[in-house]
Amino acid sequence: MSVLVAVAHPDDEVLGCGGTIARHAKHGDDVSILIVAEGATSRRDSNREDVIHLRKCAESAAQVLNVKSPIFLSFPDNRMDSIDQLDVIKEIETHVDQIRPEIVYTHHGGDLNIDHRIVHAAVVTACRPIPGSPVRQIFSFEAASSTEWATSAIGQPFKPVHYVDISEFLSSKLTALKCYQPEMRPFPHARSMEAIEAQARLRGCQVGMAAAEAFQTELDLK
What we know:
- Helices cover 38% and strands 19% of the residues.
- By secondary structure, it is α/β, with parallel strands linked by helices.
- It has a single domain, classed as LmbE-like (Rossmann fold).
- The protein has a seven-stranded mixed sheet, sandwiched between helices.
- β2 (30-37), α2 and β3 form a beta-alpha-beta unit.
- The longest helix has 18 residues, at 48-65.
């Protein structure tokens, strides 16, 4: 089975569905990770070396999850609203045509982060169920310190209806996050290692599992 994980920034793929990625890999699925924005240049005193470092972090995390290195685009970090939406859609369509995924994971459309919202809209557009499309399912995930901080004025709240059991893969998710150590924050920040584990435990407890990742279903043609 071909799987595409399309995210805005390096680390979003692990925060949102790292355990699910590892699970797909264990089951022999072909997982492609597409990272749309470079993830660093919106920060004070950032430079090209920071972008390169983040890419290396993403490559290391992919190795931990046992999938191939991500595909990197170079849209500007936290400034994707300065780009014509059609340009983003066309870039993603190119890779969807090449990868031909059956399952797609991406951001929730109501996130606080503008890049997350734009990537969500572009992915859903690029993967719409037109004749000949291979995409059968699209799931959106929650990204710690973005999804839960959004308000109703920004978009609809995240309401998961699909849960993936990652009890066997939670340790892989946490190890992959350690590859992004500069991106993580000390507890009790929502993007701390402790909080990410607690989130997985909570989502698991909601459906009788030791650990889970939660998703909103955007398309299900199965």
